[in-house]
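Researcher: Next sequence.
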Amino acid sequence: MNGEKFHSITVSRDTDAIVTTRVYHGSRAEMEALAAAHRIDEAGDPGWLKSIRLKPLDGRLWECEFKYEGAEDWDTISVPGRAWGKKVCQLRGATLSRPLEFHPDYRTKWNHCLFAAAGTNSLPSWYAGAVNTLIPAADAKKYCWGRDPADAPYDGDGRWRQLAAPLKPGVESYDLAVYTVIETARFRSASQAGSMAAGSLNRIGTPSNTFGIGGGNWKCDDAEVSWNGKCWIARLSWTQSGDENDWDGDLYGTV
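Model: Next structure:
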């Protein structure tokens, strides 16, 4: 910038950060243009820009002061972008309610009764390890699974009796811990922010940063566009499927 000159640099340290102050001198127009070209919290040298101060000096000379806060290893830190439309991600934990049958240790006895025909009084050898309601052919006329005591069948000898009650009565689901990525970006207009959200809701895709987390895939479960008083913010919430049971591509489209 014509007429602009670097004036001074001051570095101070405390227990939390390194504070670097850079001061420039020039005309009022030059210093105002310099200040307008930067934003609070942008990444600079070294650290994040925490304040910008303009003030007149003697004559026509003006001063522009930039104050940055960083750390000793600032140059090794991966800094999120602040450009318009640049997506920035945040990681959170969440839970999904899954059918009890999807649990990796599921057993049929958890939420089923076992019924037995008249004259059958002992539990079969397969009872403890059963993972579905299929009955071995050799025992099909002696045992039957059911959800409720009222499901007990009848035959010529009368109603079958309940040999074993459910071990987890009333439990039909469990909470699976998963990750959620909140993806945001700043825009100058509502239509630009809306274009980021459009076509994403309830669709399978991948956020711009998954923080190295693998397993399953991701689905956009929430979308929002709002004005924060300075710019338009688009926000997408991506939920990880959590295990080998990916979000079903037959049920959900893709971004």
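Model: The mean pLDDT is 89. The chain is about 5% helix and 40% strand.
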